[in-house]
Design a protein that fits this description.
The protein is an alpha/beta fold. It contains 7 helices and 10 strands. Helix 3 crosses helix 4, helix 3 packs parallel to helix 5 and helix 4 crosses helix 5. Bound molecules: adenosine-5'-triphosphate. Adenosine-5'-triphosphate binds next to helix 1. Keywords: ATP-binding, Nucleotide-binding.
Length: about 220
């Protein structure tokens, strides 16, 4: 279980972006993280992912302080970053296979899981295309595929539907809910009020504070 207790986070000497944030990310549900541009959604996801150390308060995983990104990876905390984080000169399939192999899959397992997950995202036809040759939306779906393929215990998805048409947006929302049904705790940063309304819980960021809207 991933929990934040009285967390403040910020960058360098600048004032904190977020102050006194307390929330528990529960397995089996999708928590929508909302707030206007610059409200701190990415900042909070980075604190949950072990990429940003809190100034105050604590981020704990199974009751122990989260040390860093490596510690988060050990606890199967998967981040799908806003900028997709893919290697542009690898193919879509290679991006998944590299991540799966690094996660301990054998090459045949990685190939099988890659094909199955790209299929779920409607990307069979793009498997062998270089990422830099894919459209923005196809790259975004490839990044989601890579995150889903890792089957994390916690899945942090940072505005992963921003470049998609309505059909693909709904497809990804369904897949995130499938992840929660599998038992993962999912946090989904989004600007889209309709998408947020379709999630079990919502945490809204405003002026450096967080308010539980639902859940
Ligand atoms: N690396 C950084 N260094 C300094 N300040 C940063 C850095 N990243 C973000 N910020 C600042 O932190 C604040 C929150 O940014 P963040 O990216 O978390 O917001 P967001 O809610 O994810 O925005 P968006 O919806 O536009 O992606 C902003 O004021 C931003 O300028």
């Amino acid at each position: 279980m991933l929990s934040l207790h009285g967390v403040s986070v910020g960058y360098g000497d600048a004032p904190a972006v977020l102050t006194d944030i307390s929330v528990t990310v529960r397995p089996g549900r999708v928590l929508a993280l909302t707030g206007s541009s610059g409200a701190g959604k990415t900042t909070l996801l980075h604190a949950m992912a072990g990429l940003l150390r809190p100034r105050d308060g604590s981020v704990t995983v199974d009751g122990k302080p989260l040390r860093d990104r490596d510690h988060a990876v050990e606890h199967r905390i998967v981040l799908i970053p806003q900028d997709n984080g893919l290697a542009p000169i690898l193919t879509a399939a290679e991006n998944l296979q590299v991540a799966l192999t690094a996660d301990g899959a054998t090459p045949p397992e990685a190939r099988q899981q890659t094909a199955a997950t790209l299929d779920l995202l409607g990307l069979c036809g793009q498997a062998n295309q270089l990422v830099e040759e894919l459209s923005g939306g196809q790259q975004q779906r490839t990044a989601v595929a890579r995150g889903l393929a890792l089957r994390g215990d916690v899945l942090l998805a940072d505005e992963v539907t921003s470049e998609l048409d309505a059909g693909n947006r709904q497809r990804i929302l369904n897949l995130l809910h499938d992840e929660a049904r599998r038992g993962a705790a999912v946090v989904f940063a989004t600007h889209d009020p309709e998408v947020a309304a379709a999630c079990e819980a919502e945490l809204h960021l405003l002026e450096g504070r967080a308010e539980i809207v639902r859940g």
